[in-house]
Amino acid sequence: MAAKTLTIDGKMVGAHEDQTILEAARDAGIKIPTLCHLEGLSDLGACRLCLVEVKGSNRLQPACAIKVAEGMEVQTHSERLQKYRRMILELLFAERNHVCAVCVSNGHCELQNLAIELGMDHVRFDYRFSGFDVDITHNRYGLDHNRCILCTRCVRVCNEVEGAHTWDVAGRGADARVITDLKQPWGEADSCTACGKCVMACPTGALFYKGSTVAEMERDRTRLEFIVTAREKKQWIV
Amino acid sequence: MAQRIEIDPVTRIEGHAKITIQLDDSGNVTDAHFHVTEFRGFERFCEGRPLWEMAGITARICGICPVSHLLASAKAGDAILAVDIPPAADQLRRLMNLGQIVQSHALSFFHLSAPDFLLGMDSPPATRNVFGLMASDPDLARAGIRLRQFGQEIIECLGGKKIHPAWAVPGGVRSALPEACRQKIKSKLPEARATTLTALSLFKKLIKQFKAEAQIFGNFPSLFMGLVGPDGSWEHYGGNLRFVDSGGNVIADQIPAARYREYIGEASEAQSYLKSPYYRPLGYPEGIYRVGPLARLNICSQIGTPLADLELSHFRECGNGSVTSSFFYHYARLIEILAAVEKIEAMIDNPELGSEWLRADAGINKLEGVGVSEAPRGTLLHHYQVDANGMVQKVNLIIATGQNNLAMNRTVAQIARHYVHGSKIQEGMLNRVEAGIRAFDPCLSCSTHAYGKMPLAIALIGPRGELVDTASTPV
Asked: pTM of the full predicted structure?
């Protein structure tokens, strides 16, 4: 496997040729914000938070989806990127009802944490006040579309790790929703094994353990890492 | 010519409100209303949320008494899960509510109402507030602020934060009292007790000075309602409802919260967002009843702690049967702080408070549930209907201040009748109408505090809407 040498934020970095910019940056201790990316799942560049500037290209590139190349010069935290990232977060907050104060994930939410970290202290866009349904027909889990950011981690983890492929996305644009089976209530989705990987993967309060009260929903991602490592490397490290 | 007097906004209460006083052609007061001008809409937007979120959502109704909503909501949840919560959870919820009573009553007395008593009803409004109190009696003001802090710290010790802790949940509570916090609360109890006793002796001296106010500050016969224990003793969290009349006779007793509808009707009035509950057997508006500290002390047979019971016997001398003057809400409030401090003293060493058995786990076992708690301002009811999955379908909240609505209207009218004659506003009326409202410590579900800096304005408005006279206080 050939190694590539590139510069990230002025730092010389060595990476394997099949690594993405995101992976190379993280190996080098450079943190790039992400929302749809989750270790162990395929990447699809949905959230655009990991956008970086690559010298020689006017377009911003999603670090999770672009492979490293020899001599690449990458900027991950320029003024322009910070501005766009804040705007992306503002749009996510405006699109649905992310009412942190009464959310089950308050204090344990990746969206909320990023907003704090990236200094998104207000939203300049009009809120859409989605008013979507909440599905608590499943006897163990609940789904609140109002808190969903359509990162599709649930779709990918169910398909790629559990292998059940209960989740999909239906509709387009503002009407897009994650669905279970053929848009049945979750409690009636026959393919669901009730494994809970989707709940572990969700970055916000959209998927939760039924019975969770406000700010109580904490996720144990190490369970997912354990399963992925066991599956891919045949190592069972608890 | 018929006229209308408006006081807008009312200051040093929790929330936004105005008062209107209607005069007839000869300038006599015909009617008076306390209008709540803020709209919240919680009953509606909670529909379609999971039951388990309700405690956390409804706690947000108020920044002063979030614990009351938290507990009423959690109890409605207990009813829907159809569980008996673990004994430790019951004790811990009680501890938090006692902390809440201390902090809210201390706020009402020291921060909001004491300036009227100690600086004088007619002292300049620019200094008739907690800052003026600090300047004139810094030790008392500081002690009062620390007393409130003591109550707030109990809430923080249990719930992790002073305001809006989502700690009580359907089935129990989320965490126990850590040992370090128990020590901290215990160490602060003597000071809390001393401050309460100081305030009580101060207030008792003032009673003579405010004899005139005691006569006209909402002094009328009405029913009183609140929770009592199985033996009729003072309650703040458990027990059942009791109604007592102004002669001190029990007219309905040991009514489970779930049957509140048989006894409480709710009327809506066009001019206020506050509903007006009434005692159903007597109809509206004859079924006027009061809730809160005055009511709780009128309905209970005893409090159950030595010092508070002694004070209760003095309190009872202020009335004949029931104490009917709303001015004595202040007195009752101080006695309740004392009761709360004594009850905390009695329970703080209970090892149960550190238990790990805190939460009953159950699914939806009933489609309807009612939870009741005694908020500092009076009885609070949460009534939920859910579907088989636990999705909230319908919410009805009966809040303490709403139950005092009819009584507050009557208080305003009584004070105004005393001070308003003819088309000119009598000096002192404005201050006393507001102080009369403050006796009820109305909580208009808002964490914004107005503390005497807002302009008070009265407008005399003629029958065709023309402005006849105005009066205002300097900003």
From this structure: 0.91
